[in-house]
Design brief:
Layout (H helix, E strand, L loop, with lengths): L13 H6 L1 H20 L1 H29 L6 H20 L1 H29 L5 H20 L8 H25 L11
Helix pairs in contact: 2-3, 2-7, 3-4, 3-5, 3-7, 4-5, 5-6
Length: 195
């Protein structure tokens, strides 16, 4: 029998979630603790995140290049091989020099945030959006964050990625904790807007 946990969640087998609510709760608490540690040790968290991403690119590149040679008679051979080589080179660079990789990635993050913020501001000013004030505020904050990161660059490259990873882990942990409490029945989910 399928039921739903909240109006915004896809149907799930509720007894499976109810049996495992404790594990979900513990995982959420661990994520919150690890996220807090990552924020406190953002330099180390940045290095670990960059090295991990580098290894994932390296493994993905080897698999892609291997796939290209395994299926060498298909039309995508050169594309698969080129992507594999690109991933391998990028992965080796990230693993070999995580500090330089973190600094470069942080500059990309700053530019992305700045461009995204400017785009949201333009959309808020030019469109007839119902909630354009919120879109404008979002754009201003996003662009401001990009400028702050860019102004402190390259020093910001040593801690920004670790900070972002830590924040994401904390929010993910809280979502798991709240999911476990909803499933257990300790918290009643908020009703969504009427449709």
């Amino acid at each position: 029998m399928a039921t739903t946990v909240s109006p915004n969640v896809a149907p799930v087998d509720s007894h499976v979630l109810k049996r495992g609510w404790g594990w979900i709760f513990v995982l959420g608490i661990l994520e919150i603790v690890l996220g807090t540690i990552a924020i406190g040790a953002s330099y180390l968290a940045t290095a670990v995140a960059v090295v991990f991403a580098g290894w994932m690119l390296l493994i993905g590149g080897i698999l892609s290049a291997g796939h290209a040679f395994w299926r060498k008679h298909w039309k995508g051979f050169f594309l698969d091989l080129a992507i594999g080589v690109l991933y391998i080179v990028a992965g080796l660079m990230m693993v070999g020099n995580p500090v330089a990789a973190a600094v470069s990635l942080t500059l990309l993050i700053a530019m992305f945030l700045l461009m995204e913020g400017i785009f949201r501001i333009i959309v808020a000013l030019s469109g007839q959006l119902e909630h354009r004030g919120w879109v404008m505020l979002n754009g201003l904050i996003t662009a401001g964050l990009g400028i702050l990161i860019w102004r402190q660059w390259p020093l910001s490259g040593l801690w920004v990625i670790g900070l972002f990873v830590g924040i994401e882990m904390i929010f993910y942990g809280w979502s798991l904790v709240m999911l476990s409490l909803v499933v257990k029945g300790a918290v009643v989910p908020a009703e969504g807007p009427a449709r």
